[in-house]
Amino acid sequence: VKVDINLHKQILDRNSQFKSAPYSGFINPKISADLDENGNATNIHISYPDNFLEQMMEYGNEYSFLPEEN
């Protein structure tokens, strides 16, 4: 494999602005809302799980509907 050194440096420089882990593109944000007495959203909170495995385990606990044994 031949790599253009100048292009490689340019890509690394552009990528340095991103502080999150490369795999974080696969992690979905967790969105929650503060509601007023009428049920209207007054504020939105966005957070991210610490890692992909944590999120998948949470999805399994919250949204699993199949029995463990078929």
Based on the model shown, name its key terms:
70 residues
Describe the 3D structure:
- This protein is α+β, with helices and mostly antiparallel strands.
- Strand 1 and strand 2 (about 40-45) form a beta hairpin.
- It is built from two helices and two strands.
- The mean pLDDT is about 90.
- Strands 1-2 form a two-stranded antiparallel sheet.
- It is flat.
Give the secondary structure arrangement, pairings included.
Blueprint: H1 5-15, E1 30-35, E2 41-47, H2 52-63
Antiparallel strand pairs: 1-2
Quickly describe the structure:
With 70 residues, the chain is of the alpha+beta class. 33% of the residues lie in helices and 19% in strands.
The SSE string, one letter per element, is HEEH
Compute the number of structural domains: 1
Taking the alpha carbons of the first and last residues, their distance comes to 48 Å
Q: Helix fraction?
A: 25-40%
Strand order of the largest sheet: 1-2
| Mean model confidence by pLDDT | 89
Q: Which residues form runs of ≥5 with pLDDT under 50?
A: none
Shape descriptor: flat
Major β-sheet annotation: 2 strands, antiparallel
Give me the secondary-structure category.
alpha+beta
Quickly count the helices.
2
The gyration radius over C-alpha positions equals 20 Å
Q: Roughly what fraction of the amino acids lie in strands?
A: 15-25%
Q: Give a count of the beta strands, DSSP E runs of length 2 or more.
A: 2
